[in-house]
Write a structure and sequence with these properties.
The complex is a heterodimer of chains A (291) and B (607). With 291 residues, chain A is of the alpha/beta class. Chain A has three domains: 168 residues, Rossmann fold, CATH 3.40.50; 55 residues, no CATH class; 33 residues. Chain A has ten helices and ten strands. The radius of gyration of chain A is 20 Å and the shape is globular. Among the domains of chain B are: 248 residues, MetI-like (MetI-like fold, Orthogonal Bundle), CATH 1.10.3720.10; 33 residues, no CATH class. In chain B, the strands form two sheets. Chain B has a six-stranded mixed β-sheet, with helices on both faces. Chain B has a four-stranded antiparallel β-sheet with strand order 2-1-4-5. In chain B, 44% of the residues are buried. Chain B is an alpha/beta fold. Chain B has 22 helices and ten strands. Classes of the chains: A alpha/beta (291), B alpha/beta (607). At the A-B interface, helix 2, strand 6, helix 3, helix 5 and helix 6 of A face helix 8, helix 9, helix 19, helix 20 and helix 21 of B.
């Protein structure tokens, strides 16, 4: 487990993200409401929720790709909620990203070597040093050295995701935002990529903000878990607690909705789920909420 | 086109890439090589015009007008005694230069505007669009005539003006290309890396626009030449410069005396424009085929053994005795796609299984395992170029694919599909037509298949919608697909699948696109309906949890082959095949968090 005294790397306080509404004087669309999270060095915070819950938006806000309306995002003590492009460039050394879709996150026109060298070049690292580093990176993510001169389309989904991970690792960042990095992968590939994420964390002490819709994935890789629902964080805490004895009704539903690979245990889980849904409905009715 | 048809599915990336082998492709294309040769000769002539031409462009020998070709004047002389050949040579230079000028002006305006407008959108984009619309609405010829009246008969001025007039073409082309990649994740990744906008545009976005710009430029040069020659032919050119258009105009005045004066410039114009159009086409062909990749591995097995085994399996058209009671029986099925080199790439190989009435069979496998191809061969919905290379499929005691059949016989399947075999797709939204209401999409098949009246079908559809757990059937019936959620759309499709009381439902990853809480509800619905109606179900999925929830029996597929089959408990609890073991060990449920998944399973897994 992570030492509780580990320094806080990233903290998000009372964050609100709004997108301008469509049309004249339209009400802005509020994607995130009052988000509070923090990540310590070497820690993984899993962010789980269904589509449209705002989990991806939160990751993008940390990366500076979503507009911060209110609240602060602090990275290593500096407020980065409205960082300029120049500050972002300095920040990119410590803050990186792995996206969901390994097919569109790599430029199809660039060779893998150039893709990996790009972040190095921006930080002013010389060509020779950068070539050595690229070789190192390919080795670290388990890709062959001849990948340098090849195009992304010559690789499978899992291999492309390894390239994307290598790009994120290029500058030895302190935090990597992982936006559904294994959702597009096959089961066995997913297992191998998750192993890679864990191995990298063990070797480098990097922190992850790990966004996924899959509670099993999040439980497997996270120290702490935050559950998002309709733009809010409804529950957060240690992974073992949140993913086994959740308190919030939505998390409870989410946990029981994920089927287990055994017919008899699944039957029990199904019965539990139906009972839970029924109880929650009764509670809602008693509380006077229209169903 | 001399290239083989692309054999690999599109890679899911937008944007065309200009690469070194593109040049090679253009040169191996007969159209391309002809165009390149013609244009190269013209360029050489234009550059060395002074050395090639025996006379100056306006050198006139008044004593020798409208002369026939001879040793001194290779192509004769015109009405002023000027050497036709020399004027043709100088004309090449001016014509080509003016075409390039025109394209350059158009690119210089359209390309940056398109890049900025497409990348930043916003105000600049609105203004640029407005200007574009105005430019496109202007009558080009009239503008050119006005400019000639104002600035005098200069080739250069008119070509600059024409360049401005056609710059919207470049603007629109660039803007569309940029907009399509602006939100690609690799652009986001570059922004996270702190790349400045100008470098993002230069490195990541410009590469996408490059190819269409090259093609467009070839076409634009051709158009520029024809417009310029046209203006000069009308007598609006500068009579003191030798261009093809001026020569054409000159020749036309003497068409009864020396018709050949018309021939040479006409020929030159035709050749130049033709070569440019051919070049544009060749570049486009070369770029569009650029995504062809040779299949390196997987499934490239010789088809000889397959054919052998097929010869030996010739059976009469009646199904094998003792198998009639199976609702569906797939027997040693092989499906393949012919390749350019004459071989057949097998995607399904020697697959056998059966489904009984009231039974749920799960087909499990990863992408590329052939599970969907198997499902589509049962439905008879394989692409046209697919071949059944081996085996048979029988439904309710009759062959739908008899042994020896090469393709699915549609006449046998059409009466079954929809009526007795129905289908639930993976993507609920893309399987509903956005132009029709949900109700009409449910009613139409019932009217056709069941032969009932529209009123009856409507009543049935409303009942079905209620049956699949939709609380407000009448409202959903009248709604358009975009007005309902993904889970709701999947319920509608399930209602459609059971509407004609089928015996077999094939569900291809029916819950993969749904949120996990919605998935649970849809699975409940499927289980409930299956038990109530007693239908057979084939559930294609990659998720063992879904299998555990619904299936009675399971087949596991890998690379087109069936690796294991058995009752659900047996497969999930005591799998025998190493691949099934690997798959199950990749499941995260019940695993110790933060431990290696694959490394811990290494002992038993060979895949």
């Amino acid at each position: 487990m992570i030492d509780s005294a580990a320094p806080t790397l990233l903290s998000v306080n009372d964050l609100i993200v709004e997108y301008p509404g469509k049309g004249f004087r339209a009400k802005p669309f509020r994607a995130l409401t009052d988000i509070n999270i923090s990540i310590a060095a070497g820690e993984t915070l899993g962010l789980v929720g269904e589509s449209g819950s705002g989990k991806t938006t939160l990751g993008r806000a940390v990366l500076g790709l979503a507009p911060v309306t209110k609240g602060t995002i602090t990275f290593e003590g500096d407020d980065i909620s409205h960082a300029s492009r120049r500050e972002r460039q300095r920040l990119s050394r410590h803050l990186q990203v792995v996206f969901q879709d390994p097919y569109t996150s790599l430029n199809p026109a660039m060779q893998v070597g150039d893709i990996l060298a790009e972040p190095l070049g921006i930080q002013g690292i010389g060509q020779k040093a950068s070539r050595v580093r690229v070789k190192e990176l390919l080795d670290q993510v388990g890709l062959p050295g001849d990948a340098i001169g090849r195009l992304p389309r010559e690789f499978s989904g899992g291999q492309r995701q390894r390239v994307a991970i290598a790009r994120a690792l290029a500058l030895s960042p302190k935090l990597i935002v992982c936006d559904e990095p294994v959702s597009a992968l096959d089961l066995t590939t997913q297992a191998r990529v998750l192993d890679l994420f864990l191995q990298i964390q063990r070797d480098t002490g990097v922190s992850y903000l790990f966004v996924s819709h899959d509670l099993d994935v999040v439980r497997h890789i996270s120290h702490r878990v935050a559950v998002m629902y309709r733009g809010e964080i409804v529950e957060q805490g240690p992974a073992a607690v949140v993913t086994s004895e959740p308190e919030h009704p939505y998390t409870q539903r989410l946990l029981l909705a994920s089927p287990v690979p055994d017919p008899d245990r699944q039957e029990v889980r199904r019965a539990n789920r139906l009972r839970l849904v029924e109880t929650q409905r009764e509670q809602d009715v008693q509380a006077g909420v229209a169903v | 086109m001399t290239l083989p048809i692309a054999s690999i599915a599109p890679t899911g990336q937008s944007g065309v890439v200009v690469r070194a082998n593109t040049v090679k492709r253009i040169l191996t294309n007969p159209m391309g090589i002809i165009a390149v040769v013609i244009l190269t000769i013209m360029a050489v002539v234009a550059i060395f015009a002074d050395a090639i031409a025996p006379f100056g462009e306006n050198f006139a020998n008044i004593a020798k007008t409208l002369a026939a070709p001879d040793a001194v004047n290779l192509l004769g002389t015109d009405s002023a005694g000027r050497d036709t050949f020399s004027r043709l040579v100088f004309g090449t230079r001016i014509t080509l230069l003016s075409a390039i000028l025109c394209a350059a002006v158009a690119i210089a305006i359209g390309l940056p505007a398109g890049l900025i407008g497409g990348y930043y959108a916003g105000k600049f984009d609105s203004v640029a669009n407005w200007v574009t619309n105005v430019l496109m609405a202007l009558p080009g010829i009239i503008v050119l005539l006005t400019i000639r009246a104002a600035f005098g008969p200069s080739v250069w001025v008119s070509m600059i003006a024409f360049g401005i007039l056609i710059s919207p073409g470049y603007f629109r082309l660039t803007r569309t290309a940029v907009r399509s990649v602006r939100n690609e994740l690799y652009v986001d990744a570059a922004r996270v890396s702190g790349l400045s906008d100008s470098r993002i545009i230069a490195r990541h976005i410009f590469s996408v626009v490059r190819a269409p710009i090259i093609i467009q430029t070839a076409m634009v040069c051709g158009v520029a030449i024809s417009i310029q020659s046209g203006l000069e032919f009308l007598g609006l050119g500068d009579p003191t410069t030798a261009t093809w258009g001026v020569m054409l105009s000159e020749g036309f005045k003497n068409v009864y005396l020396t018709p050949t004066l018309l021939l040479w410039p006409g020929l030159a114009i035709g050749l130049a424009i033709g070569a440019l159009v051919l070049l544009g086409n060749a570049v486009r062909d070369a770029l569009e085929d650029a995504e062809t990749i040779k299949p390196v591995k997987k499934n490239v097995e010789a088809d000889a053994p397959a054919r052998e085994s097929r010869e030996s399996r010739k059976t009469p058209a009646a199904v094998a005795a003792g198998t009639e009671h199976h609702l569906l029986r797939v027997n040693h099925l092989g499906v393949g796609y012919p390749q350019a080199d004459g071989s057949i790439k097998k995607v399904v190989d020697d697959v056998s299984f059966h489904v009984d009435r009231g039974e749920v069979l799960g087909i499990v496998g990863e992408s590329g395992s052939g599970k969907s191809q198997t499902a589509f061969s049962i439905l008879g919905l394989l692409p046209d170029n697919a071949r059944i290379v081996a085996g048979s499929i029988q439904f309710d005691g009759k062959y739908t694919v008899a042994p020896g059949d090469d393709t699915v016989v549609q006449s046998r399947l059409t009466p079954l599909r929809g009526a007795r075999i129905s289908y639930i797709p993976q993507e609920p939204m893309s399987n509903l037509d956005p132009a029709f209401t949900i109700g009409s999409q449910l009613v139409a098949p019932m009217v056709k298949v069941l032969g009932i009246s529209k009123k009856e079908a409507t009543a049935r559809a409303l009942k079905l919608l209620a049956d699949v757990g939709i609380v407000t059937p009448t409202r959903t019936f009248a709604a358009y697909p975009h007005e309902v959620s993904g889970g709701m759309a999947q319920r509608v499709l399930i209602a459609g699948a059971i509407s004609c009381e089928p015996d077999l439902i094939i569900a291809d990853e029916p819950t993969t696109a749904l949120d996990v809480t919605v998935q649970a509800e849809v699975l409940d619905l499927l289980r409930d309906l299956q038990q109530r109606l007693g239908v057979g179900v084939i559930l294609v999925t990659h998720n063992f949890g879904v299998v555990a929830d619904l299936c009675d029996r399971v087949v596991v597929m890998k690379n087109g082959r069936l690796v294991e089959e058995g009752p659900v408990r047996e497969i999930l609890r005591t799998p025998r095949d190493p691949y099934t073991i690997t798959l199950l060990s990749s499941m995260l449920e019940d695993k110790e968090p933060m431990t290696m998944l694959v490394s811990s399973a290494k002992g038993s897994a060979s895949a």
